[in-house]
């Protein structure tokens, strides 16, 4: 059962001009091949988008991420990104600014950035074939934990401590059907780790 696209955290959004347009261009550069591969996109039957990408940006703890429900957009601009300016995992709160609200996965991205300062980019994609192939073969989250929740945030802490997620840079989200996460010390590394799976 797909559970996608809906913001589950308490969102505090300040509508502003597009933040960090140069960083948005970098994100679009790597989002483009992910979109072309069908790893970011839109479920036509459900009317919801899937997949998102982010990059550390701004002050410590902040990052630029695709806005909610942008999966259907073939070519994004700076108008399609939001800056996460603060968050509270335990209280399930995210603050963001930009032309649109941050992705429903913003909480999960925030938790992963907390794991290691060397993580500078995160890619979240959907692929049923890859999910089926790598479930429990690559580091895999608990199937009872859904996306975008404080529980998922805590689950990535566990996974980082107890598995090869930190070194391999890829995780399968068992409780988020079709979902995979790629991390990297650069946007290129995070994206190419996922793209390499798709090419194999």
What does it look like?
This protein is 32% helix and 25% strand. Helix 2 runs parallel beside helix 4. The chain is globular and about 45 Å long. Strand 4 and strand 5 form a beta hairpin. The protein is an alpha+beta fold and 200 residues long. The two termini are 26 Å apart. It has an 8-stranded mixed beta sheet with strand order 1-7-6-5-4-8-10-9, sandwiched between helices. A two-stranded antiparallel ribbon has the order 2-3. The protein has a single domain (10-199), classed as L-fuculose-1-phosphate Aldolase, CATH 3.40.225.10. It is built from 6 helices and 10 strands; from the N terminus they run E-H-E-E-E-E-E-E-H-E-H-H-H-E-E-H.
Structure characteristics:
200 residues; alpha+beta; L-fuculose-1-phosphate Aldolase; eight-stranded mixed β-sheet; two-stranded antiparallel ribbon; 32% helix; globular
Poorly predicted regions: 1-6
Strand order of the largest sheet: 1-7-6-5-4-8-10-9
Which sequence of SSEs, written as H and E, runs from N to C? Answer: EHEEEEEEHEHHHEEH
* Radius of gyration, whole Å: 15 Å
Shape descriptor reads globular
Whole-number count of domains: 1
Secondary-structure arrangement, i.e. CATH architecture: 3-Layer(aba) Sandwich
CATH class: Alpha Beta
